[in-house]
Amino acid sequence: MYGFNPFYMRKKLLFISIIIFFIPGCTEMIDVDLDESSVKLVVDGYITNRYANHTIQLTRTGPYFSNVPPERVSDAVVTVHDSIHTYTFSELLPGVYFSDEAFAGITGRIYNLSIELEGEFYSASSIMPQVPVIDSIQFHLNSEDEEKFDIALFAREPPTPGDHYFWAVYKEYILVTDKIIQLVFANDDLINGNYFNGILVQYVKGRLGNLITLEMASITEEYYEFCLAVIKETVYVDVPFESAPAVINGNIDNGALGFFTAYAVASKTRQIKLTE
Hints:
By secondary structure, the protein is mainly beta. 5% of the residues lie in helices and 47% in strands.
């Protein structure tokens, strides 16, 4: 779905010029030797309650300043199992493994990922949370941009505390929030057990009559925190004295990076019409 790979290693030689203003010619070059030898496996995978052939993507870390796309990892043995079934994933594209059979994840179940690669074993697990039913959505013209419509949600939030969500948007059945920074994340700290009574949760650029789908995903707290960390580190402005992005550890064991998660989605589709 929302694939990303923010894990890159710093370049071996980092040159920092420190200029002392008003003193001509006073420039110092500092040569910092940074370790670039530790290449790690990066996992990006998820299971949802949609009936589909689910995917697991495997790559390797690369130099931080490199413009080369991450190396795709082939020839791994990838499986996902719950308490009843084991699903085998086959590599149909370089580094992209699809489940051999279509299936829908079930809320409340724990899904376990296993990867065997070059004699090493990696694993992760995730429970699939419950997701509220979306009763309705409405559209409001954005007060600052006439090409944007704010999306209001009507749904009952479960009474159990500690729920976490993200919202995605499709226009004419095409995903328009295809980057992690375009998703909207929230927890239920302020609304636990109450009704989403027209709360604005997303927006879309469009026009009257466009067919819009709002998708609400119920995610684990661990995945919620991971996504926020990724956003913080990848929305990075390269300015003097700003720290470089840090390595973000996920839930994959044996030193691998990335995240494997299970989440449930609910959706509602309707045409853009302004409410009176």
